[in-house]
Design goal:
The protein is mainly beta. Helix content is 12%, strand content 33%. It is built from 2 helices and 9 strands; from the N terminus they run αββββββββαβ. The strands form 2 sheets. Strands 2, 3, 5, 6 and 7 form a 5-stranded antiparallel β-sheet that branches. Strands 4-1-8-9 form a 4-stranded mixed β-sheet, with no helix packed on it.
């Protein structure tokens, strides 16, 4: 008696387990059902939070200045506020961020290198200056591999 094989490569109705192709198809269908719906698999952004009841519309500003230094000259640092990437700052550049008054955590990132976290308390109508740049020159390059959270400095600048 001849054994009947279907086009998927598995045996016909006599087979108790599905073929490898059938299992892969089912797994992909399960994955697609639970995958994020944004473009290219990026999750959708959460809905914007509504304004707090006690918010009076006042703002404050963070002024971030990067010093000129030969290390990291051609690379931009990513600016992270509360863990969210909000912009980039280039060598010898200045960036300004307008936020609601309150407490924020700032950090800079370049590839796997980070600055230490800095907590900034913003009061209404005030401007807070911060200065950043590479922490040391070629003799401090060991920081890139052995202390990556100290390879970039981020500190409060002089008040204007």
């Amino acid at each position: 008696m001849a054994e009947h094989r279907d086009g998927a490569g598995g045996s016909g109705a006599a087979s108790a387990s599905p073929s490898i192709w059938e299992r892969a198809r089912r797994k992909m269908a399960d994955h697609n059902a639970t995958a994020p719906s944004g473009p290219m698999g990026i999750p959708e952004m959460p809905e914007a939070e509504s304004e707090p009841e006690d918010y009076d519309g006042s703002t404050s500003e963070i002024l971030l200045e990067r010093i000129h230094h030969y290390r990291d000259t051609i690379r931009s640092y990513h600016v992270l506020i509360e863990g969210q990437r909000v912009g980039r700052i280039r060598d010898d550049g200045t960036e300004s961020y307008v936020l609601r008054p309150g407490s924020y955590t700032l950090r800079l990132q370049l590839l796997w290198i980070f600055s230490p976290k800095v907590v900034v308390e913003l009061s209404a109508g005030a401007t807070t200056r911060l200065v950043c740049g590479p922490n040391g020159g070629i003799l401090q390059a060991w920081r890139l591999f052995f202390a990556p959270t100290t390879a970039i400095f981020l500190r409060f600048g002089p008040e204007a």
